[in-house]
Design a protein that fits this description.
The protein has 473 residues and is of the alpha+beta class. The chain contains 18 helices and 16 strands. The strands form 5 sheets. Strands 1, 2, 3, 4, 5, 6 and 7 form a 7-stranded mixed β-sheet that branches. The protein has a 3-stranded antiparallel β-sheet with strand order 11-13-12. A two-stranded antiparallel sheet has the order 8-16. Strand 12 and strand 13 form a beta hairpin. Helix 4 packs across helix 11 and helix 6 crosses helix 9. It is extended, with a radius of gyration of 29 Å.
């Protein structure tokens, strides 16, 4: 019998504590799956990875119960938001905690009206939390445990002023009484936005299936801390021998692909360093004087063009006295995000792969040696550096070809194992972004440039430097 069916059968026997506080949220967190864990398990949390949660639940790492501005802000403002909800909807929401010791589940809800069978979920955010899938997933977990299909989501958008005042109070160790008093003065009921959420049985089924698989993660897998492996387990991609075989092949290709990205990364690093050195004012001056001697290696770049400060324009839009519709100045751009591998921002550390150690060490030594001689504008040293840059470009081309071949093999296994059903896929040096379409609004600078030239001039950012940069051929 599935976990969901077991919960549905026994939920009326679960322990219910009424008018609970923060203590039920923090106690023995490693023993239970709670509402805030659900977005993490599903891989849709912007704050914690499923791999870290697996380590927390397996006690590989301890819970810190660290208080932050955002958690405390929600705790302080929650009673005021609940009071507004009770009056607006004529409900009697009280904070409750429902616990199943047998199944290791705990649902701390911000409000439960037992008579009307209605839940309340309170969220404080920056007012820009447009994707509410994490909120909805958490709510569906509560719906199953409390036995309802109805919930009111109450969102309160924090202001910078409120954040600063509460942070200052927290920093000086203000009492709960003082924090409550501050909140009562700052709270603006007009900024509470309510959304009615109706239960979707299929979503609830999916959530509890993922919870069940997450609870099967053993200590060995948790210790490895591999988020891709953990999500593959949660989403049922490691159930059969065939699935495990495809997973292992994919991981093997991904490891080689990671190595190739390291090669590309380190080669780009050295190439950038060479260009940076060539654009040193003294060296660049000499290069330009003898540009014919080095024409096979370098070229003059184009002068930087002015940029249009669209953000500043948008901020001042109302002040500009423009009477036309705002949409007139925007283009709707549909972007198709297909199979896309993009580099992580992580700093390059080691390059123990593909026999590149000696080659990279030699390049590094040659660059350092010849760069020192460049200060005196040693023509021989300069040519040597430029020759090295050619070697780097050749290696980069070879790497690009290898990467494309590996990506093809990667996606073959990726789709075969249906890993595109995962919310995200991360490896050491690249990540997979699932295909999806979205519409992006961008400012139509051309319309402003030709129809409102005075505004274009006002919001144009002119580059500081007018000199032409040196670039490698």
């Amino acid at each position: 019998m599935s976990l969901l069916k077991k919960v549905l059968e026994k939920r009326n026997e679960f322990k219910l504590e009424v008018d609970t506080g923060q203590e039920t949220v923090e106690v023995d967190r490693s023993q239970y799956i709670g509402g805030s864990d659900i977005p993490i398990i599903l891989g849709i949390s912007g704050f914690t990875k499923a791999s870290k949660l697996a380590q927390l639940k397996n006690k590989v790492i301890p819970y810190e119960n660290k208080k932050t501005l955002y958690t405390e802000f929600g705790h302080i403002f929650e009673p005021f938001i609940r009071e507004v909800a009770n009056k607006k909807f004529n409900k009697n929401f009280v904070p409750c905690c429902k616990t199943s010791e047998e199944f290791g589940l705990r649902a701390n809800c911000d409000g439960w009206d037992s008579e009307n069978k209605y839940l309340l979920e309170v969220k404080t955010n920056n007012g820009e939390h447009l994707d509410k899938s994490d909120y909805i997933a958490q709510i569906h977990f509560y719906m199953v445990l409390y036995g309802t299909q109805d919930c009111i989501l109450a969102e309160y958008a924090r202001t910078k002023e409120e954040e600063e005042i509460i942070q200052e109070a927290l920093d000086r160790g203000a009492s709960q009484e003082e924090l409550d008093m501050l909140a009562s003065k700052l709270f603006d009921k007009n900024r509470v936005v309510f959304t009615e959420i109706k239960g979707e049985p299929e979503l609830a089924r999916k959530i509890f299936t993922c919870i069940e698989r997450f609870k099967q993660i053993d200590l060995e897998m948790a210790n490895r801390g591999n988020n891709f492996e953990i999500l593959s387990k949660i989403y049922g991609k490691l159930e059969t021998e065939e699935q495990i075989d495809i997973y292992n092949k994919l991981v093997k290709v991904a490891g080689v692909l990671d190595d190739e990205y390291k090669v590309k990364k380190v080669m780009n690093f050295y190439s950038d360093k060479i260009v940076e050195k060539l654009n040193d004012e003294n060296i660049k001056k000499k290069l330009i004087e003898k540009i014919d001697v080095f024409k096979d290696f370098v070229k003059l770049g184009r002068k930087p063009l002015p940029k249009f400060d669209s953000e500043k324009f948008l901020e001042d839009f109302e002040k500009n006295g423009i009477t036309e519709e705002k949409d007139y100045y925007f283009d709707e751009v549909e972007i198709d995000r297909k199979e896309n591998l993009s580099m992580d921002a992580s700093k390059y550390q080691e390059y123990k792969f593909r026999g590149m150690n000696e080659q990279i060490d030699k390049i590094e030594d040659d660059i350092i040696y010849n760069m020192e001689n460049l200060e005196k504008f040693d023509e021989k040293a300069l040519k040597e550096v430029l020759n090295i840059s050619k070697e780097i470009e050749i290696e980069k081309e070879k790497t690009e070809i290898e990467i494309e071949n590996l990506k093809e093999k990667f996606f073959e296994y990726f789709h075969l194992g249906k890993f595109d059903e995962l919310p995200s896929v991360s490896f050491e040096n690249f990540r997979y972004v699932a295909p999806k379409k979205y519409t992006q609004k961008r400012i139509n600078k051309k319309k402003i440039e030709f129809e409102l030239p005075e505004l274009y001039e006002k919001y144009m950012i002119k580059p500081e430097s007018t000199s032409e940069p040196i670039k490698l051929k």
